[in-house]
């Protein structure tokens, strides 16, 4: 599957496990913007009602301006956006529909665009030690280049309780307008690190006491049999076409497959992320209930 995965083995061979170590011590317009922003995380342009509303509600970064298309009924989510912007003293500009459409980057901006400060990048070490004391549950995207898949994966991950995400600096989609829209506000709540190379980041996570679990369709072990899911863990999801890179696969402590019963041989990155994240979340909830 373009993004799944298990070798089933544990390369570390540590008796204490990751918790012990952790206790010792992180569309075309989109592609053009990705090239301009490849050294940063992005996220300065947000389109779509849910994404813009969550930007304002979260209040994690300054919103500079909200632009709405003229001729819309200010009800539901749009009414909430205008009200929130007023409360936060964010300028709201209404423009003609034709001008709005020329400004929009995504295919369906739903009549609203926001300009905000770019998303802050976090260090890998920060992600390995969540400030609220929770055991880290990370999502690592290895070469996922489709902004829609990145956004959908982040939305799923946030709903599953992921505490942070890791993206590659190169050969990876960052938070373009399409990614932010697909994430539906998740980018405001999931701290993200952008790293020079995913394989080295996986090695560093191991040093920080975080187990890495890669998804790969050819793995002999099922994702439903991951023994480290309830510990400090990072789920590693590969690209839409080739899956995990060779080096990333080698650096994972565990590689697991999502069993498929149909005629098709793969899932896309966002779908694989959903299954993997919620399976890990189930294990973590079971452990919490037992305690």
Task: Write a structural description.
With 291 residues, the protein is an alpha/beta fold. It folds into two domains: 180 residues, SPOUT methyltransferase, trefoil knot domain (Alpha/beta knot, 3-Layer(aba) Sandwich); 72 residues, 60s Ribosomal Protein L30, Chain: A. The protein is built from eleven helices and ten strands. It has a six-stranded parallel sheet with strand order 7-6-5-9-8-10, with helices on both faces. Strands 1-4-2-3 form a four-stranded mixed sheet, with helices on both faces. Helix 3 packs across helix 8, helix 7 runs parallel beside helix 8 and helix 7 packs parallel to helix 11.
At the fourth level of CATH, the homologous superfamily of the largest domain is SPOUT methyltransferase, trefoil knot domain
Distance between the termini: 35 Å
Name the helix and strand elements from N-terminus to C-terminus, one letter apiece.
HHEHEHEHEHEHEHEHEEHEH
CATH class of the largest domain: Alpha Beta
Low-confidence segments, ≥5 residues, pLDDT <50?
5-38
Our count of domains comes out at 2
The largest sheet, given as strand count, sense and whether it forms a barrel, is:
6 strands, parallel
Helix content: 25-40%
Q: What fraction strand?
A: 15-25%
Shape: elongated
Order of strands in the sheet with most strands: 7-6-5-9-8-10
The CATH architecture term of the largest domain is 3-Layer(aba) Sandwich
The radius of gyration computed from the alpha-carbon positions, rounded to a whole number of angstroms, is: 20 Å
**Total helical segments:** 11
By DSSP, the count of extended strands is 10
Mean pLDDT: 87
Structural class by SSE content: alpha/beta
Under CATH, the topology of the largest domain can be stated as Alpha/beta knot
């Amino acid at each position: 599957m373009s993004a799944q995965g298990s070798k089933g083995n544990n390369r570390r061979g540590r008796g204490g496990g990751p918790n012990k170590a952790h206790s010792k011590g992180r569309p075309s317009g989109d592609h053009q913007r990705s090239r301009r922003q490849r050294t940063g995380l992005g996220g300065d342009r947000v389109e779509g009602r849910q994404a813009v509303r969550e930007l304002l509600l979260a209040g994690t970064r300054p919103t500079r301006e909200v632009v709405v298309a003229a001729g819309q009924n200010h009800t539901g989510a749009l009414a909430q956006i205008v009200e929130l912007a007023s409360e936060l003293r964010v300028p709201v500009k209404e423009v003609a529909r034709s001008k709005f459409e020329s400004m929009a980057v995504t295919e369906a901006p739903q009549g609203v665009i926001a300009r905000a400060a770019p998303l802050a990048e976090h260090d890998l070490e920060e992600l390995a030690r969540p400030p609220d004391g929770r055991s880290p549950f990370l999502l690592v995207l290895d070469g996922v280049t489709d902004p829609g898949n990145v956004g959908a994966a982040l939305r799923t991950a946030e709903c599953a309780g992921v505490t942070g995400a890791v993206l590659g600096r190169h050969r990876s989609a960052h938070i373009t307008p399409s990614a932010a829209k697909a994430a539906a506000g998740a980018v405001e709540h999931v701290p993200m690190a952008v790293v020079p190379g995913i394989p080295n980041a996986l090695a560093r996570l191991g040093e920080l006491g975080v187990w890495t679990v890669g998804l790969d369709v050819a793995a002999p072990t099922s994702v439903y049999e991951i023994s480290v899911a309830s510990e400090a863990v990072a789920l590693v999801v590969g690209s839409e076409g080739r899956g995990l890179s060779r080096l990333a696969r080698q650096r994972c402590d565990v590689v697991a497959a999502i069993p498929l019963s149909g005629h098709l041989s793969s899932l896309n990155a966002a779908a694989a992320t959903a299954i993997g994240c919620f399976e890990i979340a189930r294990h973590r909830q079971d452990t919490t209930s037992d305690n």
